[in-house]
Protein 1
Amino acid sequence: MSRVIIFSVLFLAACSSVKKSTVTKTDNELNQLEQLLSGSFSSELQSKEDTSYFNISLVMLPIWTNRTDGKWMYVEQAMATKLDKPYRQRVYHLQHSGKNTFTSDIYTIKNALTYAGLQNDKSKLEKLSFDSLELKDGCTVTLKNNNGVFSGGTDGRSCPSDLRGAKYATTKITLKKGELISWDQGFDANDKQVWGATKGGYIFIKK
């Protein structure tokens, strides 16, 4: 009887270790997406070539790196002249949802300015928790990987927005090594654009 119990314990332990290794298995494509997004970006060059675009700083930082449910990133955008007062702070949850397909769930942060400059302050990162996050339902970005170029966006009119009279917002993304093109637009109930760039996306160059 004791031999049966010992065998059962060993068998369960083996199953447990297999399950854990499956969860933590390296995902090279997801790692590649995280690496392309990570770092400091700037639209300064575009703003000099076309004054209808602002000089914007964009910082994306991997956080909670011990988690095994995808990749988590802190995102901060600010005018280059107001780096201490970012106008957008988010947390992205990146997942490999299918063959060559990736999703990024978008979260807002409660009392976001409390975490401004988090990328330079470890104490702020330690305070950031799930309790501080709120999912932007309907605003998930879906990307397709085509030979290292990730492109895609939100789904139709699914992402609600009330900014400047908007009814919904859209995001279009093209990401490749050293460059991120991001086009955010807001539309009213009649599908008329009420905010965002009109010519094309912001071109962010990695520093």
Protein 2
Amino acid sequence: MDYGVYLVTEAGLAGDRTTIDVVRDAVVGGVDVVQLREKTASARERHDLGRNLRALTREAGIDLIVNDRVDIARAVAADGVHLGDDDVPVSVAREQLGEDAVIGRSVSTVAGAEAAERAGADYLGVGAVYRTGTKETDPEQTAIGLDRVRAVREAVNLPFVGIGGVGVDNAADVVAAGADGVAVVSGIMGAQDPAEATQALGEAVVAGREREARSGAER
């Protein structure tokens, strides 16, 4: 699973477009993973949207992850679920979804990353790397910075994406610090041209990986 450009949906940022419209454009731009979030939508609305996103992502060969809701992930046959501190434990999600499911975990500290790895998570969302307006976070979880990203990379073997205030201008820095990719909300959902924005983010991820590889070779 390539975590390069990981889109987290939020319909409120899409203007007069639908989430499906934006995701379809992001697919054209080369998005690697789509996460259905839509925090303000009802369970029924998320379920119905999830079914449509499942059809779209399956046709495109892209992984679909559902935020928080194990039941919706299972109902729409998503590839997995992404969990936060207030959600069910990783072990419960694994029991419900099976061994092949992809289970992600949001963390902001090295200790949290290590605990998620021990619990059996498949990947991490690390952040908020920079300040962000798309999610309320505790002060100690906000703008954790690139040094924390580097520390997480040194501490765990899991793939992870950097999330929180990440855009085209800083995506390469996040990846060069050790992230496998970047998770983006407004940078794609709110973009005038989501396909173009996704492509630009993909290019930034590639540039970051090249910088990280050169840095590793020098060490």
Protein 3
Amino acid sequence: MTLPKHPILSSRAASALFLLSAGVLASPAVAAAFRRVEPRWLHVALLATLLSSGLVPLAGWLARRVGAVDRPDARKIHDVPTPRLGGAAVFLSFAIALWANGVFTPRLVTVVAASTLIFALGAADDMFSLGAGLRLIVQVAACGVLIAGGVLVKIVPPTVPYWWLPDSLLTVLWVLAATNAFNFLDGMDGLAGGLGLIAGGVLGLLAFRTGAADLGWSCVALLGACAGFLPFNFRPGRRALIFLGDSGSTFLGFLLATLAILGEWSQGDPVVSACVPVLVFFVPLFDLAYTSVERFASRKVSTLGQLLAYTGKDHIHHRLSAVLGSRGATVVFLYVFSACVGVVAVAAPRVGTGMVLILVTQVTVVAGLISALEISARRRISAPAATSDEPS
């Protein structure tokens, strides 16, 4: 099957214009002048957006050259072969925007190093379709890089013997869950990239509010990289021109999960600090939990490796799309829901432990009700029409 071309992805002039604009913005003189008028976060965001907009067409060209193309089959909802290396543009835009602004603190160096490993793994998977076992091993190794650099969940007080062991295990479990949850959601145009943008915005707002400027700049760089990518990927009523691929979806999940554990989201309240990342990642985590339980219960899978390798149309976006009748409406619905939960996450550090637990419970109940309603509606839609003996 011949891979169709599109003028936007084939336009060298458009790509060159975006990259030239990014180069001007990144030049020391312009950057210095810009920061005297506007805050640094805006410069980081604009630079990442311009870089991503210019690099996406190049990523599409590269994907065609190396065979990183997602071809349609019975398990997928798209019907046209589509390049898969959009994540390369997102990753490079994020990294270059931080480098050009000189905001690489020691902990960010650790985060970017581990994220680079995840990106490389995803890119290799996009090109060569790696096994689930190998992917899991490399993901755990990337978590090891984080832990070695001191980036880990801090739950157990350092005064407790072997405190680092439970914290390290929690770090691995959290990062693996978030990484693969984002990867699972990358099954509908614009969904993973849009949720990454929203999550980055929420974490960035929280980071700047708590005085973690380096963390805030990282979130803003990721937000800008996603913003430059989305117009090529989310085009309601028209097909996507390029996909994130595993190189993008796993990178987004891993990076956001790592940034979430770096923040001090509450002053001395570990419950609130733990709830904030859960709220930020609520949609991916809820989908991961629901589909995992359903797949094991229905015996579609029986091992963790099978779960990671399984591809099916049973995720939250597939179920909602069957009810709403539109993929675009489904993505927008999940955008709005994620943004609303993000507002709860922003408010959480100021309302106290008890209220945060109530809010998390309410959000979970609402998500459960939505799932129950869409399952019921889907069954009604798929059920055969009832017959009647009454005369018409």
Protein 4
Amino acid sequence: MPVLVFRHVPFEHLGWIADALDEHGLEWRYVDLHELPDADVRPADADALIFMGGPMSANDDLPYIQRELALIEEAATLGRPLLGVCLGAQLIAKAHGASVYRSAVKEIGWLPVSWTAAANEDRLFAGLGNPETVFHWHGETFDLPPGADWLASSSGCRHQAYRIGDRIYGLQFHLEVTPQMISQWCVEDANCGDIREVAEPIDPHAHSERMKDLARLIFGRWCKLIAEFVRRCAA
């Protein structure tokens, strides 16, 4: 069965995550509910689900946002591995009972994140440098979902990563972006307001080599988690 990838705008796609999925032999396909909110999508027919970012809010009363929240709840009940990035992390948090709201600080560009003690024991984040500089683009944040393990923070955003159980992860930062994606984001009409607030031009390549290595490691570990889940279901 495929990994279902929920996009919210075309330019916020898998990036380095696609490389990890391909490297581990995992089939995947995009699901664009913002174009077809009534599309026939069933978590039971997927090995895992990924929810990407976007300029909208998890609080928006949009048909596809409400549909995704319901799909997250269903997938979690079925025990499917879930990964949320930025908006995706906020959607997963909200579907698990947490609040999503405007952040006191809008983080855009290359900024460090620090790992918690729980991250040192986590199967995705163990053994990383502390801190690591990664890419950010968000103006909202969320409370930690009930029962979640807090994994990362930054100076402007306390909840940068979390884990629910052993198969659900939310990342506020954008570990998936390639330099080409960053360049594109900086000229997208939907992001023009944010770009006007950035004090200095964003260099897409500033920390891209290290982030590529981190993405291969962390998303590769998540792919191994999926493979283990599939083997367990087949046994």
